[in-house]
Amino acid sequence: MTQLCLKHNAINLSQGTPAYQPPDEVKHAAIKAIQEGYNQYSITWGAPTFREAIAQKMTIFNNIPTDAAKNVTVTCGSTEGMLSTLLAIINPGDEVIIFEPYYENYGPDTIISGAKPVYVALRETYTENGELRFTYDVTELQKAFTANTKAIIINTPNNPLGKVFTLDELQQIANLCCEYDCIAVTDEIYEHMIYDDKQHISIGALPEMQHRTITVSGLSKTYSMTGWRLGYVVAPETLTGAIRKMHDFITVGAPHPLQRAGVAALNLPDSYYQELLQKYNKNRIRLVNTLKEAGFRCHPPEGAYYIMTDITDFGFPDDTTFAHWLVKEIGVGGVPGSSFYSRPNLGKTKFRFMFSMADQVLAEAGERLMKIKSKI
C-alpha cells in the first residue's frame, strides 16, 4: 500500500509509522552517547543501564517484578523480540494460538519457529449500551487449547482493532494457560495509547502467570522512534537464557548508543505520556468522525492508533478492490482488512486506517475522503 500511495501521490494512512519525532532530550542523549564513544557492541542482551531502566518500568508500570540481570533481553525491535521468543520456546509439533485479526508477523513467526498456528477470531459484539467491542467466543478459545499448545500470543492494545483486553478476558486466558501448562506471549507495544480511561493490564502481572508469561514490547511507538529498533523481552529466568541465545544468533545486539538514549526515554516524566495520549486521542476522534461522515462504518478504537472500518455500504466485491480504488480515485491509502486474517473471508469487508499523522495531513485526508460518495 505504501508503494501504491507513492505511485499515485496518495496520503498514506496505511503504514503504522508515527508522524512525530522523538523528544529532543532523547535525541540529544543519542548524540551524546555517540560522541562519548559508545559505538561498539554492548553486552549482546542489552546495556546494563538500559536493562535496569526497563526493569524499573516493568515493575512499576506493568506490575511485573523484574530483575534486569535475570529477566530482561534487549532486542532489535519488538518484532525481533517476538521471533527470538518463539524460536526459544517452540519444539516441533507444538501449537501456538493467535487471535485474529493479528499483526501480520505472528503467523510467519510461528511457522518459522516450527509450530502450527491455531487461530481464534475476535468478533464484533455489542454491549447493552450499544458500544461495539471485539471479543473471542469462550467455547472457540477453549477448543483451541490442546495437549500440543505451547503458547498463546496476546496483543493488547491490538493492531489492527485497537482492542484492549479486559481483566476478565485475561483471567480466562490465564486459567486455560494454567490448565494446559502453556506460555502467554504478550505484545504490549501500544501500552501507553489507551483511551476513555480504560486500563492497560499485563497478563504477566496476574500471580499465577508470573512464571509463564513472556512480555514483548519496545520504544518504537511510544517515543516515535521506529527506526531506532529498540525492543525488549521480559521473561522468567528459566526462559531468559534461551531467548538471549536466539537473539544473539539472529542479530547479536541492538544499537549501543541508542540503548543509552533509551534510558533517557524511559525516564521521561508522566507529563510526556499524558500529552502523547491527548495528541493521539484528538486524532482518533477526528478521523473517526471523518470516516463516519464519508460513509464508513466504524467505532472509536480503545487503544493504539488504528481504526478498523467496515466498507460494506460502498458495494465493492472485496477489500483489495476497494484499496486500489481508494488510492487511485480518492488519493488516500489504507490496509485491506483481509491481510490481518488467516481466513481472508473474515476481513473482506474490513479496512484499516491509522491516525498517527500531523493535523494538516489528517485534514487533507478528510477532504479527499469526503469525495467518496460522489465518486461511487
Secondary structure topology:
Elements: H1 2-8, E1 11-12, H2 24-35, H3 48-60, H4 68-71, E2 72-75, H5 77-89, E3 95-100, H6 106-112, E4 116-126, E5 132-136, H7 138-144, E6 149-155, H8 167-180, E7 183-187, E8 213-218, E9 231-234, H9 237-251, H10 256-266, H11 270-294, E10 306-310, H12 319-330, E11 332-333, E12 335-336, E13 350-354, H13 359-369, H14 372-375
Parallel strand pairs: 1-11, 3-4, 3-6, 6-7, 7-8
Antiparallel strand pairs: 2-9, 4-5, 8-9, 10-13, 12-13
Helix pairs in contact: 2-10, 3-10, 5-6, 5-9, 11-13
Would you mind describing this structure in some detail?
- The chain is of the alpha/beta class.
- The protein has 2 domains: 2-21 and 271-375, Aspartate Aminotransferase, domain 1 (Alpha-Beta Complex), CATH 3.90.1150.10; 26-266, Aspartate Aminotransferase, domain 2 (3-Layer(aba) Sandwich).
- The chain is 41% helix and 17% strand.
- It contains 14 helices and 13 strands.
- The strands form 3 sheets. The protein has an 8-stranded mixed β-sheet with strand order 2-9-8-7-6-3-4-5, with helices on both faces. The chain has a 3-stranded antiparallel β-sheet with strand order 10-13-12. Strands 1-11 form a two-stranded parallel sheet.
- Helix 2 (24-35) packs antiparallel against helix 10 and helix 11 (270-294) packs parallel to helix 13 (359-369).
